[in-house]
Design a protein that fits this description.
Helix content is about 25%, strand content about 25%. It folds into two domains: about 5-200, Formyl transferase, N-terminal domain (Rossmann fold, 3-Layer(aba) Sandwich); about 210-330, Roll (Methionyl-tRNA Fmet Formyltransferase, Chain A, domain 2). A hairpin with a 6-residue loop joins β8 and β9 (about 250-265). It contains eight helices and 14 strands. It is of the alpha/beta class. It has helices spanning about 15-25, 50-60, 70-80, 95-100, 125-130, 165-190, 220-230, 310-320, and strands at about 5, 25-30, 65, 85-90, 105-110, 135-140, 150-160, 240-245, 250-265, 275, 285-290, 295-305, 310, 325-330.
């Protein structure tokens, strides 16, 4: 059976390496996104790994990097590889019906959620945002619908209270690699592959996360903000703006919280969400949550614009808490 891998980035790498280890010369091609410089730019928070094309070249596997696999050029490159099975992991493009007709045995996808929950481009981040205790990996048959194909294999994984999207995705990638090999062996055996239909009533979405999505809304509850900070790591990162009396707003990346949430004292409830308070020495807290229900979330690591990451203690040396100091959107309402 001729296998072609289709994927990009650190989530796909373990699957590609596992297929190479299990099937050797039967892995006859790699389709991956063109080289981008986003991961190497100074200050980038995107994860970078060995590189799919580098892994392929080291193994002597032909590489195709079309701008779009759905164009005539992309289809021509794929057809030249003559795949029996396409294995997709985080490729980054929705595959057209024409692409899906190329492999003789079909196309499977390694999806980082317990489908039908969290269909879409960012299932790991949304699982953290949603306060899930478990997520996992599902191997599905690829259909023209978004992550809607029949489920072949599925395995759950606990979400740790310290997990960021980056750390959780790395663990899920290892689960996905073993499931992908197991599924590929099923196809190599030659028999019919049965799958389980997804329940439409249980479908939730995990759409692509954009850079501006990282703005923290301090009117949300403390536990929601704590999950948000973790979910935005390593990209696009959670950020806010520091407002100081007589100064222009300054963008600040919040990279870590202490996970401490305490209700404000009754006499302090008139204070607004986003206010910095010196409630944990030598760090600080930020009021959050809806009016009259303010919690406090501890900030332990952050990065002011143009500066390196620093602890809360280091931050307070340069920006001591004074009346009127608060976090919020760039323009306060």
């Amino acid at each position: 059976m001729r296998l072609v891998m289709m994927g990009t980035g650190t989530f796909a790498e373990p699957t590609f390496e596992a297929l190479l280890g299990a099937f050797g010369s039967d892995v006859v091609g790699l389709v991956t996104q063109p080289e981008r410089d986003a991961g190497s730019k100074r200050g980038s928070t995107r994860q970078t790994g060995k590189g799919m094309a580098n892994i392929a070249r080291a193994a002597g596997v032909p590489v195709a990097q079309p701008e779009s696999i759905n164009t005539g050029e992309g289809l021509e490159l794929l057809r030249a590889m003559q795949p029996d099975l396409l294995v997709v992991a985080a490729y980054g493009q929705i595959l057209s019906k024409d692409v899906l007709t190329v492999p003789t045995r079909g196309t499977i996808n390694v999806h980082a959620s317990l489908l039908p929950k969290y269909r879409g481009a960012a299932p790991v981040a949304y699982a953290i945002l949603g306060g899930e205790f478990q997520t996992g990996v599902t191997i599905i048959k690829v259909t023209p619908g978004l992550d809607s194909g029949d489920m072949i294999l599925q395995e759950a994984l606990d979400i740790l209270h310290t997990d960021t999207t980056g750390s959780l995705e790395a663990r899920l990638a290892e689960v996905g690699s073993s499931l992908a090999v197991e599924a590929a062996h099923k196809y190599a055996a030659g028999g019919p592959i049965e799958g389980i239909k997804q329940d439409p009533a249980l479908v939730t979405k995990a759409p692509k996360i954009k850079k501006e999505f990282g703005l923290i809304d301090w009117t949300k509850p403390a536990d929601s903000i704590e999950r948000f900070v973790r979910a935005m790591q390593p990209w696009p990162t959670a950020y806010t703006f520091l407002h100081r009396p007589g100064k222009e707003p300054m963008r600040v990346i919040v990279s870590q919280t202490g996970g401490i949430h305490v209700h404000a004292a009754a006499g302090d409830l008139e204070s607004g969400a986003g206010e910095l308070i010196d409630f944990v020495h030598p760090g600080f807290g930020v009021r959050c949550g809806p009016a009259m229900l303010h919690d406090v979330v501890e900030i332990t690591e952050l990065q002011p614009a143009g500066k390196k990451k620093m602890t809360a203690e280091e931050f307070l040396r340069g920006y001591p808490i004074v009346e009127g100091l608060r976090f919020g959107p760039e323009v306060l309402t």
